[in-house]
Design a protein that fits this description.
The protein is mostly helical and 72 residues long.
């Protein structure tokens, strides 16, 4: 029974970690996290290397996509 509880807690932990990485960020926040300039981020978007949403008239990025782009 203890191993079932531990396994369940580990699953919950992973689920919470995944949800945290799926938050939307604007370009300012991406620049803060990556320490890159806005022009570098925009260049990656234009080249198709970084996915983003252009709804609402501004660039919005999923944190998981940004981390994947940075890690290569």
């Amino acid at each position: 029974m203890n191993t079932q509880i531990i396994n369940l807690l580990q699953e919950i932990k992973m689920e919470l970690k995944n949800k945290k990485n799926n938050t939307w960020m604007d370009i300012k926040k991406v620049c803060e996290i990556t320490t890159l300039s806005a022009s570098t981020v925009r260049r990656a978007v234009n080249r198709g290397k970084l996915k983003c949403s252009k709804k609402l008239g501004k660039l919005l990025f999923m944190e998981s996509d940004v981390r994947q782009w940075i890690n290569g």
